[in-house]
Amino acid sequence: MRVTLNYNGVSRCRSGGGSEPDRRSARVLPVQPPPSARAPPSVQPPVSRLLSAAALLVAALVAMPVLSVAANLLAGGTGDTWAHLVATVLGEYVLNSLLLCAGVGLGTAMVGTGAAWLVAMHEFPGKRVFEWALLLPLAVPAYVLAYTYTDFLQFVGPVQTGLRETFGWRREDYWFPDVRSLPGAIVLFVCALYPYVYLLVRTAFLERASGMTEAARALGLTPWQAFWRVSLPLARPAIAAGVSLALMETLADYGTVAYFAVPTFTTGIYRAWFSLGDRAAAAQLAALLLGFVLLLLAAERASRGRARYHDTTGRRRPPAGRRLEGVRALAAWAGCLAPLAVGFLIPGALLGRLAVAEREGEFGERFWLLARNSLTLALVASCLAVLLAAVLAYAARDRRRLLPRIAARIVGLGYAVPGSVIAVGVLIPVTRLDHALAAVWRQVAGTDPGLILTGGIAALVYAYLARFLAVALQGVEAGLGKITPSMDDAARSLGCGTLRTLGRVHLPMLRGSLLTALLLVFVDVMKELPATLVMRPFNFDTLATQTYTLAADERLAEASIVALAIVAVGLIPIAVLARQIAGRGRGASP
Length: 590
Known about the structure:
- By secondary structure, the protein is mainly alpha-helical.
- The radius of gyration is 28 Å and the shape is globular.
- It is built from 23 helices and five strands.
- A hairpin with a 4-residue loop joins strand 1 and strand 2.
């Protein structure tokens, strides 16, 4: 007997020798949708609807600062402030921002890609150390580098003083580059931000270009030709992504450009807000800066065109690196050591020397108060960020609902918005809400509650979430990608409901991803300066703001201990990444 299935899902039985259909009642078989089209079994419809509503609310709150800035784009500033800015300094803001982006983009691409190519495709002494050590400059904020090298390279610093004492020079006898300049800022940004490019491009070389490179070598290309014609084109998306991250950090920076007296959009926003007292003008500058960031993202996307980058060799095992010896090995070693030394080793040693010379300085009751403030903000913001990211990721996991996935993408853009823009976008609506709440409180209770939101840390934590929630979301989504619908099916078949599946299946598998996301947000909040400077409550300082204040007052020795604390905290996620890289390196070794 042969069994067939009609398009309407009705099965009919036919005997092996006859042509007439069996007149017995047909059995209707339900047609099941493919697993990818179904929502994960652990997310039941009521829970899914609740998660979707929560995801939309979170996305709206994250988007509100940007919408607030955009709403003030056409607003007129008081006292013709905007006309004054356009006539005097706006062109300088645009030019310096363009030059910064061009210099930092080219520099990070060259340094990061070169270092990644050396450690991924070659074998030389010290390679295993450089694989993870090249990430260490990420722990040092760019503004800390600026303060450190200014003290080291200024006229009365140890370098120029040593030159004068050694050669008997006077001031007019020699020329020395000024680190407090636009070129100096570009060099320091490159040294601080090249690990973004290095980390992504190294992975691309190992996972995407390895098989293609071996095929190119088999066809007779030299190693240099294989790099230019195969490895580099295949790594282009990773290079573009790393450079984009570096440029976003550059445009978001305030401490470095303010200390070097380089007028940019970020310094202009701060000046318009505090020096000129015009929030509308600050919002207009913030809107232009936001447009600048969006233009960079659009340009990076358009530069790819319709090109696609795929490795069709099917090989995922890292290749055996080309062994370098003699002068070539020494050159590779020096090429990796140079950015590491400038971005981490030298500033770390200089900060340590200043801290030892200061000895007591800030390392007292004031230091512990600053540390408590910073740790409180970082802990509250990181825990809330991971919780909200989990809600967003679970809501977006339901493929039948489009709005939660759109909400997750909106939140993902938050990291591209500079902290100064977030600060302006948060303060304008939240301040109005604060005054409205205070008015209602006075009518009901008859007392003046003061500023409820902006008078404490609530508004500041909100700004951190709008800025760094995307970081936590990426970590949680990466963890959820390892949980397949079949795992949820197995849990449901064993009688586990939604909460039991979450507690007994999902959380154990997500523990590492959640911890990594929490650490990344924690460190980002500890280092964040522009939004904290604008939004911190009165008489409330953090390690970052105190470092900036002391450095601006030329009290670099006192700032060294506080800066070292920021660097030490920044080393925590770097240690996690280093351990993963070292583990993969051991696994890949023959």
